[in-house]
Amino acid sequence: MAVFTPLSDTQVADFLQRFDAGSLLRLEGVASGTENTTYFVTTDRRELVLTLFEQGEHEELPFFVDLLDYLDEHRLPVPGPLHDQQGIALQSLADKPALLFPRLPGTSPKAPSLKQCHALGDTLGHMHAVSRHFDGHRPNPRDLHWLVAMHHRVLVYLSPEDQALMADEVDNYQGFFGDAPDLPQGALHGDLFRDNTLFDGERLGGIIDFYNGCTGDLLFDLAIVINDWATQADGRLDPERYDVILTAYQARRELSEAERHAWPMMLRMTALRYWLSRLLVVYVDPPAHDLTPHDPEQFRTILLARLEHGALPLPDRSHA
């Protein structure tokens, strides 16, 4: 159970009085959280999600609030946080920072259909097109600088072959991106896996969990999506899902020539990003709570597939 801070009905009923959201009918702890405490809150007027932030950089929470407000104002399917009757979103409850969100419809897809892939690509392209004008700033916490600094911490736990693979890849990224032209920048989700989306049938009901949100290379975000949404069990790319997502994306935001050139390397770098972050959780910095970490091997397999087979051709903008 991932409810780390228990709350009573009375506490939540009192909390709701700060908002224009109705009176509490039902409170339900959510077991799927990994870092924060989450409750589903039902009032006599609507369905809500209450999140208490258990760890992390609390001073960065205003960035996430501003980003969600901005995307919500641009009619993206994100959970724009509720603001209290004084216009303030970020609250305190049980001595923890707290946010109240609308509960978005749908469930996370395990095997997305092509229509779901199209909806995701279209929405991500829309999000990136508008996020280029977002004036908030939070450096990408898992970019190349992080890879360079952190990969040494796991090398001792790897085979000699994997040590060489990881060290050589980081060197390659430094050489490539150090000399490459700047890529288009904007606000990123930073972790847009299938389990951070909600689908109501074929319709994308919401993109959730923006706590890896940051500003940086838009292509980084897109590569994370492709490595999760359009990858087969053996690590190779799925041509149909790949084409559908990227065609829908480019109908909203065309990739630049620099992005097209950097694409195969970005797919490799984001695969290594998750291989490394999962290795760190297993060997170096286990989670504060008794939770099963994700398997690092999945993204080692993806990285090896990207090295062996490269990226599939990017769809032309004219086909979008």
UniProtKB/TrEMBL annotation:
<dbReference type="GO" id="GO:0005524">
    <property type="term" value="F:ATP binding"/>
</dbReference>
<dbReference type="InterPro" id="IPR005280">
    <property type="entry name" value="Homoserine_kinase_II"/>
</dbReference>
<feature type="domain" description="Aminoglycoside phosphotransferase">
    <location>
        <begin position="27"/>
        <end position="254"/>
    </location>
</feature>
<keyword id="KW-0791">Threonine biosynthesis</keyword>
<comment type="similarity">
    <text>Belongs to the pseudomonas-type ThrB family.</text>
</comment>
<keyword id="KW-0808">Transferase</keyword>
<dbReference type="Pfam" id="PF01636">
    <property type="entry name" value="APH"/>
</dbReference>
<comment type="pathway">
    <text>Amino-acid biosynthesis; L-threonine biosynthesis; L-threonine from L-aspartate: step 4/5.</text>
</comment>
<dbReference type="InterPro" id="IPR011009">
    <property type="entry name" value="Kinase-like_dom_sf"/>
</dbReference>
<keyword id="KW-0547">Nucleotide-binding</keyword>
<dbReference type="InterPro" id="IPR050249">
    <property type="entry name" value="Pseudomonas-type_ThrB"/>
</dbReference>
<protein>
    <recommendedName>
        <fullName>Homoserine kinase</fullName>
        <ecNumber>2.7.1.39</ecNumber>
    </recommendedName>
</protein>
<dbReference type="GO" id="GO:0004413">
    <property type="term" value="F:homoserine kinase activity"/>
</dbReference>
<dbReference type="GO" id="GO:0009088">
    <property type="term" value="P:threonine biosynthetic process"/>
</dbReference>
<dbReference type="InterPro" id="IPR002575">
    <property type="entry name" value="Aminoglycoside_PTrfase"/>
</dbReference>
<keyword id="KW-0067">ATP-binding</keyword>
<keyword id="KW-0028">Amino-acid biosynthesis</keyword>
<keyword id="KW-0418">Kinase</keyword>
